[in-house]
What does this fold into?
Amino acid sequence: MFPRKDIWSNGVFAATHALNGDGEMTGTHWIRDLETLNYPIMLTNTGSVGGVMDAVAQYTTAKHPEHQWDYLPVVAETFDGALNDILGRHVHYPEVAAALDSAHDGPVEEGNVGGGTGMLCFRFKCGIGTSSRQLPANEGGYKIGVLVQANFGSREQLTIDGVPVGRELTDQLPTASNRLPIADDGKEGSIIVVVATDAPVSSVQLERIARRAGLGLARTGSTSGNSSGDLFIAFSTANVIPLRGSEKELNIRFLTTDHVEPIFRATVEATEEAILNALTMGKTMEGISGHVAYQLPYDRLATIMAKYGRPLASEPRRLF
Amino acid sequence: MFPRKDIWSNGVFAATHALNGDGEMTGTHWIRDLETLNYPIMLTNTGSVGGVMDAVAQYTTAKHPEHQWDYLPVVAETFDGALNDILGRHVHYPEVAAALDSAHDGPVEEGNVGGGTGMLCFRFKCGIGTSSRQLPANEGGYKIGVLVQANFGSREQLTIDGVPVGRELTDQLPTASNRLPIADDGKEGSIIVVVATDAPVSSVQLERIARRAGLGLARTGSTSGNSSGDLFIAFSTANVIPLRGSEKELNIRFLTTDHVEPIFRATVEATEEAILNALTMGKTMEGISGHVAYQLPYDRLATIMAKYGRPLASEPRRLF
Amino acid sequence: MFPRKDIWSNGVFAATHALNGDGEMTGTHWIRDLETLNYPIMLTNTGSVGGVMDAVAQYTTAKHPEHQWDYLPVVAETFDGALNDILGRHVHYPEVAAALDSAHDGPVEEGNVGGGTGMLCFRFKCGIGTSSRQLPANEGGYKIGVLVQANFGSREQLTIDGVPVGRELTDQLPTASNRLPIADDGKEGSIIVVVATDAPVSSVQLERIARRAGLGLARTGSTSGNSSGDLFIAFSTANVIPLRGSEKELNIRFLTTDHVEPIFRATVEATEEAILNALTMGKTMEGISGHVAYQLPYDRLATIMAKYGRPLASEPRRLF
Amino acid sequence: MFPRKDIWSNGVFAATHALNGDGEMTGTHWIRDLETLNYPIMLTNTGSVGGVMDAVAQYTTAKHPEHQWDYLPVVAETFDGALNDILGRHVHYPEVAAALDSAHDGPVEEGNVGGGTGMLCFRFKCGIGTSSRQLPANEGGYKIGVLVQANFGSREQLTIDGVPVGRELTDQLPTASNRLPIADDGKEGSIIVVVATDAPVSSVQLERIARRAGLGLARTGSTSGNSSGDLFIAFSTANVIPLRGSEKELNIRFLTTDHVEPIFRATVEATEEAILNALTMGKTMEGISGHVAYQLPYDRLATIMAKYGRPLASEPRRLF
It folds into this structure.
């Protein structure tokens, strides 16, 4: 198992998949050929990709000099221009260093946090969401965790557990904004999906896992719009790859391909859920120029779900 | 618009996408680099790919000598070993020539026909299915047609219009078969999706369209299993590319990328529907060794759909 | 090390790369996702791909029934229409079974043999060629073997060890042929490159190795023409992957990426040499319709090489 | 033809290819799916990718507000740590704005300039190099221009016009440097290749053109090392794609595939030459910590070339 303290001196097998390319995730050429993720994954808004990359280089040089000659960090983005002064490029070294210094184990904050602060899904307030699965023992007992920074979807697409919620809940659209020269009808958004597992899988198996994130996205109603940056990254902590090792050969554990199957299923399910959690954990926010995005009204959602034979068991803000 | 009689002397822009690669679709190297589909698309079972390729070469030489020097036909397959004597490789020149000679405009047969004869979906009888969309005039009025040869899915995955039908309809599994050394639990199947449009789109836009077929597949419950050959091909009839022309330049019409968006949506919807039509048009069949696969019972389906707030409007065997 | 007798019950890690796609190599969707080569690699002419695929299926069913349910053989081709009755599709089960039954260890025949019988390079007679490297012990001592079926190149491109031989040796072109409706000026050819190694490398590392075959091809003067099917496959015998194993996990050995470097270099060198061996081992042949392709005149080659400061050490027909 | 003043309001068809991925070129997800290059291409060192991305965003917002909502610039890098204080990340807004403001038509500076200032090839001083071809009128008369930022190669690999120069010129290695924890033997370098043409080609044709840059690289002796970021981008100015147009359809001109062939050849040749020009235009430089890299000695080169039957016609510093 991958020791968290070692993320600056070891890599893990990783892979990426681009379902639609109108977005940025840096560092993917390396991952494709060298097969490893050697850095923290940074999520930010579209305008701050360069600033965050620069700050990661500065941070690495200052705090992890053994890693300082490597400069291919992974920084991904979605567009928060509806609520945020995205042109201001406000994320710099202090914010990046604070994020890296405060990274921790345990529960992950969701909704209006971090890179997800200004994001919208299906024209409701959205942000960061997570979900996970643990396979049963006879399928290996592996864990699959998904984190999304979600910012996509027109209202009418919104589908929860198969129920066409967006067709029933047509009001509470974000307040009109004339500041964006681009379409603001929900088609233009993006989603970054991060899939982590402790299953021993190869980088090709991880690419196949990353592809499945798109199937989970589809279950929420998305058709992956033309202007979306639907970019996925998957990594496994099972095998530890030293960054500067002297080893000539590595001894690696891989699942036989048949045994990857349950991880595909878990990835689809957890991606769907992580998106819904990003959505239901979002909180109504007033942003730049008085622009407001509303949270999904839970009570009305419960009514709709019941109408379609899917009563909600309780009243969590977090669906799953 | 592409004149049907010219399919042996002209090509059309095309692209392919492999959501999962445990299957065969030949001719894809050409399509990736040369950007065109120059042949009829042949769908067969796994054991007959070679025989069909050979028969297409023979047919072309005999009947379209101007095309006879080209030998990169597109032949795709799914596995019908549960019902068919797949090891017998029974498809040869007569069947291939008959299929090519009898190709026609108008409605397409569905269910237990052609390459779909012996296929199963979600462990019900399945086969060939089709669906289409026409965009509204303000989105260009283009048509998008989808044809699938579907042979995938475990029962519990089956989802129709968001309703978890497979969890309610757990009986009528195919009769036990000990003849297959491979798993016969529905995980092992494949789907070939063919997307055709008259929208003027580039081969890259077609690749992006082909990717969306996977999102339609996801809506039916599939997580694209490890042993599936989920292979998609898309083509557009809007631009005609002469195979042996003397032109140095072609004048091509393309949609601006923003206007491709509705085609993505239509592709997702039509793929989902084509799969459901393949399923509901399948008819109970007894195959090799007395193995039986049952058709989806429509009356029980109607009951389940109603329970989930989705009453079926009538009683067609074809859902859409 | 991979036991040769086991090729029907075990797989090896593999990968493919298409430098240019006007050609066919079947079975590549599987290899990309499942990461293994489970079959013999079959090389034939363009017209016989289907027939050979069909024959491999028949052979497998007849002789290796434990493998009979798999039908995704790897069959690749180049175009021998200048010398051969390619429209006749003359390769069927007897030839395929004979080839498979007579496969053996030890030296490989080169020149006008097997799939290479009717091939031309740089408008000289060509065919099958091989070459290999063994890395020094401090680089792991691994072996890298390359086999090509070569059928490409205009005369003026021909470059041997950096010497512009084709600009000096402008005669002895193949006799004029009016039978081909396609260009017969040497631009239209293809090359299949097979790279085998006993180094423990991953499928991604093998894909990177396969890409290097193109760099070896470039050294001979090729610019990979529009109508070429420059398709490469690489595999490693170091890790044995059971086809029907019950193992959940595999223990795999991989080189750390730094140690793959010498294999890249060896692949480039051996590909260049294998092409030159295919060329110099070719023998003058009269084919269909009295069409003649001439072998490279060794004495004149020696004179040219000396003029450019590269005297040939002896007079082998095989350059390396 | 593309009006230079319009680069902020129009795009051009483009494509990228990664021969080896240990490097960074941002903006490639967009280019793959949206098919266009909408930004100037920025070349810098590895440590400054983030800073340059950030500066391009700032510059666009300040000077081209109509383009300010787009944030996916193309920034590529090679590693100049042997001569430069790469950890200092010294390229910021002033340098980026100055570069963009001073961009001009006409001859391009070569050698120790811009991003190429601190680069080495084959362990000689190197940097920026360019070359071009114009096809004859019967092949369309198109122009193909190549610019490289070159920083790769061990000495022994160096090959000029087929002559093994590196094996003859074994001295004048860069002075020893103990400051780099990574290997400094020339294997670790990278090359960025930019191919521009006025030929009317599709984005797929441009991807195929970009692939050919690797064949030109191979002619100089490179085997594309494990630690190289050999990243190529190609674009065509023939079709102008408005960034914010209201057009639903574009009328595009494309070459038929047969007519792309000469562009492949020209790309290979011009890439080879651009690398050699980057090498021969480099000037001896003393960098950080007194580290010195020497320029290729022209007189000794002339002697070697003559020995191999390739006398240099004159004594230009620029070979081609």
